[in-house]
Design brief:
Blueprint (H helix, E strand, L loop, with lengths): L1 H8 L17 H30 L12 H4 L4 H5 L17 H18 L3 H10 L1 H5 L4 H4 L4 H20 L9 H11 L8 H8 L8 H13 L5 H4 L10 H10 L38 H6 L2 E5 L9 E5 L2 E6 L2 E3 L3 H12 L9 H12 L3 H9 L3 E3 L4 H12 L9 H12 L1 H13 L3 H24 L6
Parallel strand pairs: 1-3, 4-5
Antiparallel strand pairs: 2-3
Length: 469
Amino acid sequence: MEEHQERRNGGEKEGGQPSRNSGQTGLEPEEYRIDIFEISHRNWIESLRTAEESTRSQSQWPRIPKVPQMLRGTQDFKKFYEPGLISIGPYHHGKPHLHAGEIIKRLCARKFLADSEQDMDALYTKIQSNIEAVRTCYDMIPTNKYDDEKLARMMLLDGCFLLQFFCGQGNENFLRCHQLFFAELDSFMLENQLPFRVLKLIFEGANFKGPVEKKIKKFVTSTLWPERSTSETELEEDEEPSHLLALLRSTLLGRQPEKKEKSSSCQGGDGRSCCPWKKGQKRGFSRSFRNVKELKVAGIHLQPSGTSFLRDVSFNSYFFYGCMNLPPIIVDDFTKPKFLNIVAYEMCPDAPDDYAVTSYVCFLYELIDHADDVKELRSKHILYNCLGSDEDVAKIFNEIGNGLVDPDAYKEVKTSIQKHYDKRGNTWIAEGLHEHFRSPWTIIAFIAAVLILLLTGFQTYFALPAKPK
């Protein structure tokens, strides 16, 4: 048996050529092998053309991606990227630990249909007529488990729940306090999204005033900045978002700055360093400053920006005094999963390519090392700590930013800070002021000493005898 196997293995020479005893000539299999290569090559070219055509003919409904593979192996993946109470869409539908959420969704959906005075069959028909476009929004494998009827029912139930949760009233009748928190958290997870067009299809016939975007933005704004109204934040009326997570991202970032002509200093008319919101690369830039505490010693002080939008970051340099403006933010239990899912979304091919939130997270990661840095941000009313200790806040940003590649959208701001930091004269003056004028009492004592010296000098001058004429 072994000899027979050896003979079979020996029937081909090295390189795949058959022996003379194989009953085939050497020329025929070589030609056959070339033909196969040509056929596979043509198929490969054809597959590229087909992929290009399918991309061009893709539905106008944006895709809802899954979390990138590079993030799926993290230790806390299930905690921050998978829903804990409510499943939205097909990715996590039917999981055993989410069965309680299905009851909540049905109660909320029934309340929404009653308050909006809409017919469920009519809504189902609208979604059913667009079900092929809905399928293109998700990965093929999870959606293939559901036929058109089941997928349309899922979209209708999940859409009615989301609209009731964000736009309706009386949610406390269905959800307790902790359930409200988890439902909101689950609604902004990347793999737990619904196409925004589905929400518009359901909402357009509702007996509610105003478009769905404004109502959901109002809810998101009150969650992010409780002390500010929607009008004060001046939400941008831009193109329709892909889903709720994309809406949350655009609400955090605010208005897109106008493109300016390229210049060496990249400064606006008011002297503020602008931030180019485009894809950046780490090239030729090395910083020596490390955190907020070191910036303060170098004479760079912090103050809140005029808005709470993450794009509103700037730096001004005045001789030995520097001022960096940062947007005020609230840090709570919602902060870490919110930023992690937006960062995961920005890693996906269909997301905006400015990497704005990722750059902001990396910037805070550089500024915050220890609890003292958080304390300084709190004292300047830039950071509102709703977690408890400053150590917890520092740990959150260190964990979020650890391992991220900085797109460096704040490169111009960082460069301006570095130039100010590298001027040793500015640093010496700032260190002297910081060391000797920490409290108002030392400043008062210094002013008193200067006044005493001046008065003593005047007194000595006038006490001198007058010169004879």
